[in-house]
Amino acid sequence: MLKWAIIFLVISLVAGFFGFTNIAAGAARISKLLFFLSLALFLLFLILAFTAGQLVF
After folding, report:
1. Mean predicted confidence (pLDDT) in 1-19
2. Nearest one of 28, 26, 35 to 3, comparing CA atoms
3. For residue 9, what is the enclosing H or E element?
4. Domain segments of the chain: what residues?
């Protein structure tokens, strides 16, 4: 999922460079959504690993 966020970020940067502001804004919005969704899933699985006892420091 993080891979798709980076792809949409690149699309947004290229579209913004060429002046397609609506496409750039849409791609940036999708990129931001996917990034925060993947971050939330990472934190959820990290918490689950701690509670299951699989991850010990």
Report:
1. 93
2. 35
3. helix 2-17
4. 2-52
Q: Return the amino acid letter for 11.
A: I
Residues 15, 23 contacting (CB under 8 angstroms)? yes
Closest C-alpha among 40, 42, 9 to residue 27: 9
pLDDT for 22-50, tens place per residue? 999 999 999 999 999 999 999 999 999 88
Cα separation, 27 vs 33, in Å, equals 10
pLDDT of residue 53: 80
pLDDT of residue 10: 95
CB 27 within 8 A of CB 12: yes
In angstroms, how far is the first alpha carbon of the chain from the final one?
A: 27
